[in-house]
């Protein structure tokens, strides 16, 4: 066949060719199975190059499909890359299959193809069709259907507190390429040691994960999940350097038909405005045609054994409804909780920053109340317990806000809001309140020293906890360390105890090591900055001098563990 070929006519010429195309499509990871009457309507939507005369051929195609044994239980969308069509140009045909209550629906978008003198063989036709396959969309509600082959590889870029749980989660159903630029981290993971202390050597050994620093390994992945940090700069502006570097690296190793999913927290629009152009330029591929993007905000809670990658409801969004559907089935295969389809990538991005900004605002409210009640000499804890008896009272408590999420993400929304011409006063005020708590705690320490007439020369202060939250070793943006730094700057004698951190790292940063709890000297003031579960409050008396002060920031220690001659202060 030569000039002005009509793929529709070609497909309808023989049932063998139809089956051949179906088999080729199946090899790309889309399942083609025997038809089941229970599934109802079966749709085959083809956006084809053809002339208006293809209308007659379409009926022939329907007859061929019905007469052959080709039964398709999924929808294939094949897009015309050359022309945009309007709904008026769409030709929709239906034919009820004899002997069943099911319908085959064929949607054709007729248009002239560029003339060619090249013979169109079965292979060439299949290749042309495969270039335009966006996503198989099931018309069946059966959860047993396979929409993403478990044989397909999943790549995960960034193997930190977020990326590693994602890699381990996907490894239960897929072979995973776990990529990170940190060769020391990769070496530890290969040896069965998790630097983030989230997974045991046994779990890592059982996982189908190939840990590597070779980005070329990503070329064989059907989907690449990006889970790199998105911190802020010294001026509290979004820092996309890690995300941009990851996008460049992925783009240089991006194979056609790959779906790239970003899990890193960003402001609304960043995935499409910042990441997509980098991917396109580095790969020389076109997003939406040659490769596809999606967004699924991470919700990993480090140190939380109950709320994990598998059990936390998952938001997903793709650049089109078809990509969203593909991602839905991908994540649904490994997530036990609900997988929620957001209406767009921007909506999913916004949802993530709202989640953490809401917490930041509510904690700021509690911190503000604690300072008000301190002036009024009213115990904040008692107030919150009383208020909590109302059914719709939100149970937030005062405390330090650090880490790479709650104390960072609001700045992304603040930045985007200002670009849009709106000054988000509530968001900025909440950030100011929470950032001021380090100075508030430090000033409280100084007030207690003066009030109780401690001698500066003999004074000993102990900090319990150096991480940004309980039961993990992550010290990024830790406000406990900010307090330590301020106390050392004042020339005070401070000892630190945190079993979760590397003692050498702390010493390199601040000149003091983390001391094991039994080896701590007795102190005049003990500041409980991070109440790890490993701390035994029954032993607290062993590290206190006879007349001392316990600054229990989060009210973690029951009063029964506080000696009678010790002042128990808390927010």
TrEMBL record:
GO terms of molecular function: NAD binding; oxidoreductase activity, acting on the CH-CH group of donors, NAD or NADP as acceptor; oxidoreductase activity, acting on the CH-OH group of donors, NAD or NADP as acceptor
UDP-glucose/GDP-mannose dehydrogenase C-terminal domain location: 462-559
Keyword Electron transport: no
S-adenosyl-L-methionine in keyword set: no
InterPro entries: 6-PGluconate_DH-like_C_sf (IPR008927), NAD(P)-bd_dom_sf (IPR036291), UDP-Glc/GDP-Man (IPR017476), UDP-Glc/GDP-Man_DH_C (IPR014027), UDP-Glc/GDP-Man_DH_C_sf (IPR036220), UDP-Glc/GDP-Man_DH_dimer (IPR014026), UDP-Glc/GDP-Man_DH_N (IPR001732), UDP_ManNAc/GlcNAc_DH (IPR028359)
Listed GO biological process terms: polysaccharide biosynthetic process
Keywords tagged on the record: NAD, Oxidoreductase
Family: Belongs to the UDP-glucose/GDP-mannose dehydrogenase family.
Protein name per the record: UDP-N-acetyl-D-glucosamine 6-dehydrogenase
Organism encoding this protein: Oceanobacillus picturae
